[in-house]
Amino acid sequence: MSPYSQAVRTAQAYYNSDDAENFYSRLWGGEDIHIGLYQSKAEAVVDASHRTVEHMCALLGDALDGATVLDIGGGYGGSARHIARRHDAEVVSLNLSEVQNARARRKNAERGLDDRVTVVDGDFENIPFDDGHFDIVWSQDAMLHSGNRQRVLDEVARVLKPGGTFIFTDPMQADDCPDGVLQPVLDRIQLDTMGSPGFYTRALEQRGFSRRDFEDHTRQIPRHYARIHETLVEREDELRDSAISRAYIDNMKKGLQHWVDAGEAGRLAWGIMVFDKR
């Protein structure tokens, strides 16, 4: 029996699928799979997504230099490679998709980063490291895939050193979001709930963290998903030729529009949250 929870197994099966692998690797270039900080509506998804990584690094500054860093839900490992290369840090990318992890290991080898970036098959509800192992825990748009976010935060608190920092982004519902209105979005990601800025703040403060910052970039949510939708339409013929099924593309277009609609209606939240462990 799989050691993963049902929500994690669902995410694992999705990201291991041929359709998802071909879609995300082609659209993002096999580097990043997260929301971007766009400077214009027409900016490329890849460029905006990488800007998020650069900006999160800038928020941490010298604290990343030579640090031990854990990226939970590391995807293709693009963030881990950037941190390792720019800050001479030792980075672990913990990720549940073996397909993504195989690509990440190949890219690490191609760029000579095998000794700085370690890719680990696993999930953030059961982090396979000792207490107080890391200076920094990092996550981008991954925790929404957990059916037990309290457990994820317990694990983050456990593996982080006293005085360490947890920096993350996550697609969230707005604190004042009415019940039931996000069902189309939740159905798309096969989950029952989403976190919120208030949830993460309260839950982490209960675990001995203090919030340093919540840099609110909620306006990027509809922009990001609209840009992916536009790019998908522009490149649809090419993507179909790369063995992505028609059903997947059609469902993706519908799902992306749900995110755009919810974002424009003010039902979602997103930004960069930084917490320090006391």
What does this structure look like?
By secondary structure, the chain is an alpha/beta fold. Helix content is 46%, strand content 19%. It has a seven-stranded mixed sheet, sandwiched between helices. It is globular, with a radius of gyration of 18 Å. The relative contact order is 0.16. The model has no long low-confidence stretch (mean pLDDT 95).
Label this structure with key terms.
278 residues; alpha/beta; Rossmann fold; 7-stranded mixed sheet; 19% strand; globular
Outline:
This protein has 278 residues and is an alpha/beta fold.
Which percent band covers the strand fraction? 15-25%
Please give the share of residues in helix: 40-55%
Strands of the widest sheet, in order across it, are 3-2-1-4-5-9-7
CATH fold name, please? Rossmann fold
Task: Assign the CATH superfamily.
Answer: Vaccinia Virus protein VP39
> Mean pLDDT score, rounded?
95
Give the biggest beta sheet: 7 strands, mixed
CATH class: Alpha Beta
